[in-house]
Design a protein that fits this description.
The complex is a heterodimer. By secondary structure, chain A is of the alpha/beta class. Chain A has 10 helices and 9 strands. In chain A, the strands form 2 sheets. A 7-stranded mixed beta sheet of chain A has the order 2-1-3-4-8-7-9, sandwiched between helices. In chain A, strands 5-6 form a two-stranded antiparallel ribbon. The mean pLDDT of chain B is 97. The chains are: A alpha/beta, B alpha/beta. The structure holds thiamine diphosphate (TPP) and iron/sulfur cluster.
């Protein structure tokens, strides 16, 4: 009988530290599948941002470098410039990438650095206990927006994929969700495309994945899935915002 | 064949980096060190290397972290405020045991301060500078030749100990021109089996500084401490110009030590018996040599271009009862040989 579903070689067989219903595990799997698909596990170096994804090295069988909070794209730049023929990716949360690391991701994208950025947008700071993130939705209660995010006080949630898509250095910028099979298939495609484009030296590739943090949303995993569909996707539209056809900038 | 040419301090330093096999430079403009990135932006690519003008010093130090993790010899240079912005990255690099060279051509401070020569960053450089229990290896050149030599040595020490090295200079050392002998001996290199190159034919590797499990961090701290102990034992550098019958010893480093040479010559012409000590490594501090000299000389004079930072290390090093005085000129002011001579005379009254 033909085996149609198995653990990707890149995904280490272990239990994770993620909370029930957390999507970090799902996103790890998508990354592992993309690496397997290209057959580049032995040539891949990941850079883990600071957040619940920091233990990347416990779950993916690739070389991993920890980066200071927000600086993963700069660290990945250094690694990629030394190893231009290797596959280099960062794995970052929304506090890491859209708040403290905004400068690094924008300039790395603008330089057209040939790396892939995996951006897990769960609209809160997971690791530190559910504080407000730049991506927290208006009205969303967090431990530092107890009355709900109010734009008069805190400004608006940032749409990273669209913003980065305006930069010439960007080869691919997409937003996907991992809440249900139909979206998951597109998410898988987007992650595959991003890694494939990097392998073809096409420039900076970026995938934002709308994900659940049931723990800090104070929800059951099921309710969290519904929230992605009902509250996140309406504000954060899914789609590909930029896709270069060839490495024409070179 | 060894070649002797006239070079500006910053160019000698940049050439030293290239000689050491450094092929990656990341930096952000700030006076008074712009000659270094300007020179390397031209010459690094010519020698097959990479020069990136980063968007900030925060980005520079983290690009450096990445390049170092990938096993390359890499450097950045900056001054005052830029060095302050790099402290988190330096702490991560010390914690992750990554080698690199960071050049600080100092500005006076605090704040935006001034750009004239100063030694106000001694404390920041020699106490680690960022958070946590670590130190940088700090080298203090005193001539253009040493801007070249100590940069090469810096890359060797960084790799030997897997620790960031700081070259602490100032605008005098960066700007002045002197003859330099270029080396043709190959720099010492070290295998880096820990480097991140992708897990081809081996287990996946990890560069990290996070230790959450019970007791893990303490073990790591003691490992680093042992490394710093070995560093002090094997690689402390100091220049001692000793008069066996000296009545006083003068301690100074960097450009300030040059002025002390003139002052000591003037004192000796007057018949004053004086020894001169110049720390070349500021961390590890040459406490042993200072202690040894202080067993015979009861009076010390420390000369610094700040309000008095190294003097604390001198006081901790000398034998009990030794009188340690201070001549301090902060804020870009430079002590004159006459002023130093007057202090020597006063100390001997
Ligand atoms: C310089 C610095 N500031 C703050 C922190 C504390 N910190 C750790 S993780 C984190 C936020 C993580 O949130 P996010 O990036 O959204 O990732 P998640 O945990 O939600 O996956 C913060 C603020 C830190 N490690 N370093
Ligand atoms: S806190 Fe949130 S992001 Fe972190 S593991 Fe739990 S569910 Fe996932």
């Amino acid at each position: 009988m033909k085996q149609v579903f198995k653990r990707p070689e890149t995904l280490i067989k272990t239990t994770t530290h993620f909370c029930p219903g957390c999507h970090h595990g799902t996103v790890h799997r998508l990354v592992a599948e993309a690496i397997d698909r290209l057959g580049v596990r032995e040539d891949t170096i990941g850079v883990a941002g600071v957040g619940c994804g920091v233990f990347l090295y416990d779950y993916l069988a690739v070389d991993v470098c920890e980066a200071p909070h927000g600086r993963a794209p700069a660290v990945a730049t250094g690694i990629k410039r030394v190893n231009p023929e290797k596959i280099v990716f960062t794995y970052q949360g929304d506090g890491d990438l859209a708040s403290i690391g905004m400068s690094e991701v924008v300039h790395t994208a603008n330089r057209g650095e040939n790396i892939t950025v995996i951006f897990v947008n769960n609209s809160v700071y997971g690791m530190t206990g559910g504080q407000m993130a730049p991506t927290t939705l208006l009205g969303q209660q967090t431990t530092t927006s107890p009355r709900g995010r109010d734009f008069h006080y805190d400004g608006y949630p940032i749409r990273m994929a669209e913003m980065l898509a305006t930069l010439e250095g960007v080869a691919f910028a997409a937003r996907v969700a991992v809440d249900k099979p139909a979206n998951l298939r597109k998410a898988k495609q987007a992650v595959n495309t991003a890694f494939e484009m990097q392998a073809k030296n096409m420039g900076f590739t970026f995938v934002e994945l709308l994900s659940a943090c049931p723990t800090n949303w104070y929800m059951t995993p099921l309710a969290a899935l519904r929230r992605i569909e009902e509250e996140m996707i309406p504000y954060y539209p899914l789609g590909i915002f930029r896709q270069r056809k060839a490495a024409d900038y070179l | 064949m060894e070649e002797r040419i006239m070079l500006k301090g910053s160019v000698a330093l940049a050439e030293g980096a290239l000689t050491a096999g450094c092929r990656y430079y990341f930096g952000y403009p700030i006076t008074p060190q712009n000659d270094i990135p300007e020179y390397l932006s031209l010459h690094m690519p010519e020698r097959g290397g990479v020069f990136i003008q980063a968007e900030s010093e925060v980005a520079s130090i983290n690009m450096l972290l990445g390049a170092a993790a990938a096993g390359a010899r890499a450097m950045t240079s900056s001054s005052g405020p830029g060095i302050s912005l790099m402290q988190e990255g330096l702490s991560y690099m010390a914690g992750s045991e990554l080698p690199c060279v960071v050049v600080n051509i100092t500005r006076s401070g605090p704040g935006l301060g001034g750009i004239s020569p100063t030694q106000g960053d001694y404390k920041q450089a020699t106490c680690g500078g960022g958070h946590g229990d670590y130190y940088l290896i700090v080298l203090a050149p005193s001539s253009v030749q040493e801007m070249y030599d100590l940069t090469i040595r810096g890359f060797e020490l960084a790799d030997k100990y897997r620790n960031p090295v700081m070259i602490l200079g100032d605008a005098i050392l960066g700007q002045m021109k002197e003859p330099v002998t270029l080396r043709d001996a190959k720099p010492v290199t070290y295998d880096k089996p820990w480097a991140l190159t992708g897990p081809k034919g081996r287990k996946p590797q990890l560069v990290k500084s996070l230790y959450l499990k019970d007791g893990e961090m303490e073990v790591h701290n003691w490992k680093l401490a042992e490394k710093y102990r070995r560093l002090a034992e094997e690689d402390t550098m100091v220049e001692v110009d000793e008069d066996a019958d000296a009545d006083i010893a003068v301690v100074a480093y960097g450009s300030c030590a040059r002025i002390v040479i003139s002052a000591v010559e003037m004192a000796r012409e007057e018949g004053i018996r004086v020894s001169r000590i110049r720390p070349i490594t500021l961390y590890p501090f040459p406490s042993g040599e200072i202690r040894r000299v202080s067993e015979k000389v009861g009076r010390f004079l420390t000369v610094e271009m700040n309000t008095g930072q190294m003097v604390r290390d001198v006081r901790l090093s000398v034998a009990p009862g030794c009188d340690v005085r201070l001549l301090a000129r902060p804020g870009g002011a430079i002590p004159t040989p006459q002023q130093i001579l007057a202090e020597i005379r006063k100390a001997l009254e």
